[in-house]
Input
Amino acid sequence: MMKRGFVALLSGGLDSSTLLAYLLRKEVGNPIEALAVAYGQRHTRELKAASDIAQAFGVPLYQTHIDPSIFHNAESSQTNYSVAVPHGHYMDESMQVTVVPNRNMLLLSLAAARAISLGYDHIAYAAHAGDHAIYPDCRPQFAWKMAELLHICHFSPIYLETPFLRKTKADIVALGHQLDVPFHLTYSCYEGQPLHCGLCGTCVERHEAFTLAGLHDPTQYGPAAAATPQAAK
Output
């Protein structure tokens, strides 16, 4: 018998951490588990952030992995270390090399399998409007089709929760602020260094989101950002 419960993808970034806080506020009394996945990403530092966030929220975290060799031939800066991480704005065409092939379909499939094994009927991920231009598996069309497939992947329907699909990054930061998300524990940088580089697309987008939301950015940026991330220039 399936019960109302959630497995939420948690990367350790702003979006997925805010998603977890959102579900905790919305689904009081219903079980929630976070799922973090190692897939050979350059920025494995995000997995520590996922653990820190789950611990801060008192949510169980299940960690698993995908054999990274499946991505070895991909021209993705996040799984192929011979491809440089592009710097600049998130909307720049160069950011397309940060795409990991079919990643979200794989992660959502793992989340569904985990949810079914727990007897839960919902999974969730934090795709948002700012991702649509760069990541095909964050587009509304993708989410809608995945929702249809999840509805028939088991004897009982599995539901896909995507509350940020039409929200901007600034919207998510503002919501996270209201939900007391410990932003200082989150991690977004594609370079994967201990401190955020402040120069890659996701760092620029991160700082820009805080600025647009009218909030202080608590992120620690490395010396390469010259103390001021590119988004603030």
